[in-house]
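User: What would this chain look like folded?
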Amino acid sequence: MGIYMKIGIFGGAFNPVHNGHLHLAKGYVKSLNLDKIIFVPTAVPPHKSADDLADFDDRLAMLELAAESFTNCEISTAENEREGKSYTYDTLKYFESLYPGSEFYLIIGADQFLTFDKWYKSNDILQMVTLCTAARKDDEERAKILDFSQKLDGLEKSKFFLLDEPVFKVSSSQIRQMIMSGQDISNLVPEKVKKYISKKGLYRV
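Assistant: Here's the prediction, encoded as structure tokens.
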């Protein structure tokens, strides 16, 4: 048996990582008393177009810069090291083998949560983790999440967590659009991430 830990798995394109991601991560660490949170940048997202996806190395570099002040976190390149699409089930199996005996908390966005029944091996994932999400928009979205959680086949009440604190309302797609139109993103991403985007000329086209 390995050392028991409470580990948050926070996957996503992080295209780019922003203050909302970091705010959420810190909220989960505090609310769930996690020992660590692992950011897992997606290599080939199963449900997203890769047209406006920055190179994996750039997204990884931005995550590393953003996480410099975050003491309870790691960044994993596991999904980039596998061939094919980045399925969450395969990633979780990998972490189970890496941290045997630990308890896993899968952190996903509200949009992803509301389509979770369509995920590859969704029922198997529910046996492996506590499923965590947060309402980014309003009370209506929160109500949708709670309603869906009650209908989601295989989801036990004790294995579902809805973050109960204000969420930083920003999205990566919004930031990309702002960059394309020349708007200032200073208050939406860490300063080092902003400089990296500017230096590399990311999301300009």
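The two ends are 50 Å apart (CA to CA). If you want, I can go into more detail on any region.
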